[in-house]
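Bug #77: duplicate submission created two jobs. Keeping one. Sequence:
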Amino acid sequence: MALIDRFIIEFDTALRSVAGGANAQRPMPGSEANAAAFMDAKEREHAAGLMRVNHVGEVCAQALYQSQKLVARNPEIRQMLDHSGQEEMDHLAWCETRLHELGSHASYLNPIWYAGSFAIGIIAGLGGDRWSLGFVAETEKQVENHLEGHLEKLPKEDQRSRAIVDQMRVDEIEHGQAAILAGGVALPQPIKNVMQAVSKIMTSTAYKI
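Kept job's structure:
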């Protein structure tokens, strides 16, 4: 693929991540569930807040995968990151669709989340492929834990959102395992702690804004 074609594709991905309009290659989970399942106003608002957090997580995932692909040394690792990134794009589209169904919106701070994550991805990638993959693995592990928490917090009636989150959780586990098998190293605990702290700030803000 020509460099200019690759640039156009990556720019389109970035634009869709920030401005909306993501396209999924796989059907949205929970299609058999009632999109308008009965929830009172408080439950619907809570579900929307959680799905907005999940959407922000996928915006950040796109930025991370895009930036790490740019500096990856090994072509096979770039291909792996590209595959995982496409599945994350599915997640992005699913969350965006569900937010619309819930009558809500994506985070107004998505450009900031994307830019910050892109910068972090570049830094992680410049450390070398093994550290970059280790960062991917740890990120996916923390996202997995975060999604498990959302499965407990989502209203029981919202089977559509729950199906989306559960499939996302399955995919994140696979992405993390792929990164480890490709040579990712375990990150030092202080770095993990910083990642958790940043994630907490992001999720608490995105839930509301």
